Automatic annotation (TrEMBL):
SUPFAM superfamilies: PLP-dependent transferases
Protein family membership: Belongs to the class-I pyridoxal-phosphate-dependent aminotransferase family. Alanine aminotransferase subfamily.
Domain Aminotransferase class I/classII large: 35-342
Origin superkingdom: Eukaryota
Cofactor(s) this protein requires: pyridoxal 5'-phosphate
PANTHER family: ALANINE AMINOTRANSFERASE, ALANINE TRANSAMINASE
Record note on quaternary structure: Homodimer.
Protein name: alanine transaminase
UniProt catalytic activity: L-alanine + 2-oxoglutarate = pyruvate + L-glutamate
E.C. code: 2.6.1.2
A GO molecular-function annotation: L-alanine:2-oxoglutarate aminotransferase activity
Organism field: Triticum turgidum subsp. durum
Length: 360
């Protein structure tokens, strides 16, 4: 890492910094920014709910305050600026100094892709409110909806014509996500723009304390950042493999989305991107009471019964946060495509049996 950072110091004139995290993927980047942003419990970070739990855990670890804003499930997990502003104002009225806004696009666990117009609104909001924008963009290649396209927040910031220090932006990427999905091989990086030179210097210092990265992680990060070009001999095979993987993931997402939507008590938004579906489940009152008797959250009770009956693992929505009184679960689309029909069949049998058992 020291060698990588040494060469990056030469790019200071671009007011840009890219730091590579090759032992714990992009997680170290989040930790670094929480360390910089949070001084005490009066410092707050706006985080979407549902959220990837890394954010709440990292904020708690550094002694800050999580300021939640709820994504709108009825509009496909849309980010409503009016709600974010309301949460910001409420936090400030309680003496919390809100310092940053986290956006996950494409969404985890919700699988939505932000509209470009929405991104412009988000950037303008951060600029007007003096917030650092933390953009988790690790699933940017995984877009399945024909009417949606990934736009980086860096592109949005530049297209608005903001100056180099008008809006602090941190963008995250990972080698274990996207179409490559090299899970088990950890690596990631973050790019920062819009920070003043003294702040960038402190980021360099904190990043430099970490141990040097492993060779395979460096190679993977390099490949993710520099994929084959159309003029390269390997481009045809690379593109065929990439397109094949993404097309398969899209088919898996659609199959699960359709299957969930057919089941009693389950509603499921379209899978626009990332690797997840986050269906809402309306549980019978008897199931909720049984969960309470077992000292479990209702969605955790359902997920455990599913695991015990079928071997299928889903994560309860209560692990990500959700509107009070609603219940969800997160399902990945990662099982091999040929196994999806069997998974759907087992899930359907379980769900119908569960609902019949607890039906009021």
């Amino acid at each position: 890492m020291q060698l990588l950072l040494g060469s990056l110091h030469e790019m200071d004139s671009l007011l840009m910094l890219m730091i590579f995290f090759l032992q714990t993927e992009q997680v170290l980047g989040y930790e670094l920014m929480m360390q910089l942003l949070i001084r005490n419990e009066k410092d707050g970070i706006l985080v979407p709910i549902p959220q990837y739990p890394l954010y709440s855990a990292s904020i708690a670890l550094h002694g800050g305050s999580l300021v939640p804003y709820y994504l709108n499930e009825s509009t496909g997990w849309g980010l409503e600026i009016s709600d974010v502003k309301k949460q910001l104002e409420d936090a400030r009225s309680r003496g919390i100094d809100v310092r940053a806004l986290v956006v996950i696009n494409p969404g985890n666990p919700t699988g939505q892709v932000l509209a470009e117009e929405n991104q412009y609104d988000i950037v303008k909001f951060c600029k007007n409110e003096g917030l650092v924008l933390l953009a988790d963009e690790v699933y940017q290649e995984n877009i399945y909806a024909d009417n949606k396209k990934f736009h980086s927040f860096k592109k949005i910031v530049r297209s608005l014509g903001y100056g180099e220090e008008d809006l602090p932006l941190v963008s995250y990427q990972s080698v274990s996500k996207g179409y490559y999905g090299e899970c088990g091989k950890r690596g990631g990086y973050m790019e920062i723009t819009g920070f003043s030179a003294p702040v960038r210097e402190q980021i360099y210092k904190i990043a430099s304390v970490n141990l040097c990265s492993n060779i395979t992680g460096q190679i993977l990060a390099s490949l993710v950042m520099n994929p084959p070009k159309a003029s390269d001999e390997s481009y045809a095979s690379y593109k065929a493999e990439k397109d094949g993987i993404l097309a398969s993931l899209a088919r898996r997402a659609k199959a699960l989305e359709i299957a969930f939507s057919k089941l009693e008590g389950i509603t499921c938004n379209k899978a626009e991107g990332a690797m997840y579906l986050f269906p809402q489940i309306c549980l019978p009152q008897k199931a909720i009471e049984a969960a309470k008797a077992a000292n479990k959250a209702p969605d955790a009770f359902y997920a455990l019964r599913l695991l015990e009956s079928t071997g299928i693992v889903v994560v309860p929505g209560s692990g990500f946060g959700q509107v009070p009184g609603t219940w969800h679960f997160r399902c990945t689309i990662l099982p091999q495509e040929e196994k999806i029909p069997a998974i759907i069949s087992r899930f359907t049998v379980f769900h119908e049996t569960f609902m019949a058992e607890y039906r009021d």
